[in-house]
Amino acid sequence: MVHVPSARRRRLQPDLPLFLTMAMIVLLWIAGGASREDTLSQVVVRAGCWSILVVAILAGPRPALRANRSVLLLLLAAIVLPLLQLIPLPPAWWQTLPGRDILVIPGEPVPWRPLTMTPGATRNALASLIVPSTMFVLLAQANERTFRWMPTILLGMIGFAVLLGLLQFSGAGFNNPLLNDTPGVVSGIFANRNHFALFIALGCLITPVWAFTNRNGIKWRGPIAAGLMLLFVLTILATGSRTGILLGGLSVTFAATLVGKRLRRRLAGAPKWVVPAVVLTVIFVVAGIVVLSFAADRATSINRVLSTEGGEDMRTRALPTVLHMVGSYMPTGSGFGGFDPIFRIHEPFGLLKLTYFNQAHNDYLGIALDGGIPGLALLLAGIVWWLNASVRVWRMRADELGISGQLGSLVILLVLIASITDYPARTPTVMAIIVIAAMWMVRARGAKSEPALPA
Which residues, including other chains, have CB under 8 Å from residue 51's CB and lie 6 or more apart? Predict the structure, then answer.
């Protein structure tokens, strides 16, 4: 009889939470890149999430809810808000809400109506929360093995998405039939190139952490990570996302902050000039690739920055209207998910065009419009929690567990920055990544002595 070492035996044992988490990531890769409610991808991703959630509840271990109660409370609050907006109100109450007079038909009795002006859109917004809920349950059930593999899984997800984006960039003309993506635009697994650029920027954060948190694998992970970083930077330039340039630059800078100490420790025995030489080499290589890409007319993002004036941007032109809408529906908001029909009510003739303005393109204003003061209060609570948790994880020593919490903090920071000009957190994939990042931070705060990042 052959004796199997205990460590190897544990690796060979089936792990349902890890399997379901990987299935969830594959599902999001296939159908998690759209925010519009009328795309086929929403049916696929939500049905898949419900199936995964049922299996996790029936066959998985008991989730650690108490250890993750801060994330659970924020998630429950996000579910309760649209539920409250769907409760029918007496006519006398409903008519006192701001902006509702436009729905009153003269001479007709006013029926009981919910707070939201767009009940169907609010029900869709509520249904979309099955994605972060499922990811939360999976990670609350997960053991150390799942969290150890998570950066590798995410990096694989991002890497395959980049390959798809490069296929689109080559002129192959691939478009996902499940998404409402634009033909000819490099958007990978997303319908929006800005969301794809953010996704790649997150890859720039995860890549060096993946390389430096394995002592035995750095010799082969290091070159792979360097190649991936260059590939990610080039792909961001190819997307045509102007916000992506900023996010990419920030992510590379943040990544250097995350692994800088580890790099210096690895090169501690080398001459003093080696560390500055490595840093300058990386800067010159990245800058050289950007310059060559722009000279070859392949840097679509830079071309759009230079060719598009701010006054011609629809987001800039629509901003006064959006601000007026926010003020008109305070303090209750107009209802989650209903920006499109509400904007059409207020849209001035000067903004009319063949295409439509689907979101506020500033999710802070979007939340203020949809949720009013309650929505802003929940947003503020989430940001305060993130700030408090960030301070704690950045005070930790940079071991595997500490760097996982710091990575989670920076992931959420990039999403917050991207939300100033867009709405990435309304896509299923980014919803799930936010939950992953938050759980990294919770684990770093609650189990300071345990390792948490990949083997």
Answer: none
| Of 361, 417, 360, the residue nearest 386 (C-alpha) | 417
* Residue in the structure block whose two tokens are 């948490």: 452
Nearest to 199 by CA among 43, 431, 444, 367: 431
Q: Residue 228: which pLDDT band, with cuts at 50, 70 and 90? A: confident
User: Average pLDDT of the chain?
Assistant: 82
Instruction: Report the C-alpha dihedral over residues 167, 168, 172, 177, rounded to 10 degrees.
Output: 110
DSSP assigned state of 311: G
pLDDT(171) > 70:
no
Rg (CA), the chain: 23
In angstroms, rounded to a whole number, what is the distance separating the alpha carbons of residues 437 and 139? 11
- Across 257-360, the runs of DSSP E, i.e. the strands, are none
CA angle, residues 25, 26, 27, in degrees to nearest 5: 90
Closest CA to 362 of 320, 427, 422: 422
DSSP classification of residue 412: H
